[in-house]
Specification:
Helices cover 66% and strands 0% of the residues. By secondary structure, the chain is mainly alpha-helical.
Length: 140
């Protein structure tokens, strides 16, 4: 569990940009993670994720995938995939690679789909490529 927390903290630190609001959020999220207050980190990241920030959407997906976040009965795999896809659709590299790995390994309830995996991975190098993968809807 400690390893998971360290990985989460490391990934979140690199997943958040340096604009003024985001920089403040990064500091607050980092502090919350240092204090093992993952619920607060989730709330802080969610605010920016809901406003369309791809890096924060990635952070929310990361927190949910590690068991943090208030999902009100929503499926964590579906929620993780939802936020991950929103971020990837904006071209956020870490999310593109994570989504590629998800299709390659069948994570988050996805069927293994090598073609979709390669498509998302290639989008990292060629942002003009459109990937035809299953539609991801917001979880109920």
């Amino acid at each position: 569990m400690l390893y998971s927390k360290l990985v989460t903290a490391s990934l979140l630190f690199f997943a958040i940009s340096c604009s003024a609001d985001i920089d403040t959020a990064k500091t607050q999220i980092s502090s919350a993670i240092d204090n093992e207050d993952f619920a607060r980190a989730y709330v802080l990241a969610l605010e920016h994720a809901e406003n369309g920030d791809a890096e924060m959407q990635h952070a929310v997906a990361l927190l949910i995938s590690n068991g943090y976040g208030e999902l009100d009965g929503q499926d964590s795999d579906a929620s993780t995939l939802y936020w991950l896809r929103l971020s990837a659709d904006q071209g956020f590299g870490d999310s593109l690679l994570w989504l590629s790995d998800a299709f390659s390994n069948g994570w988050f309830g996805l069927s293994i789909d090598r073609e979709a995996s390669e498509c998302w991975r290639s989008k990292v190098e060629n942002n003009e490529l459109e990937c035809k993968s299953p539609q991801v809807n917001q979880p109920d």
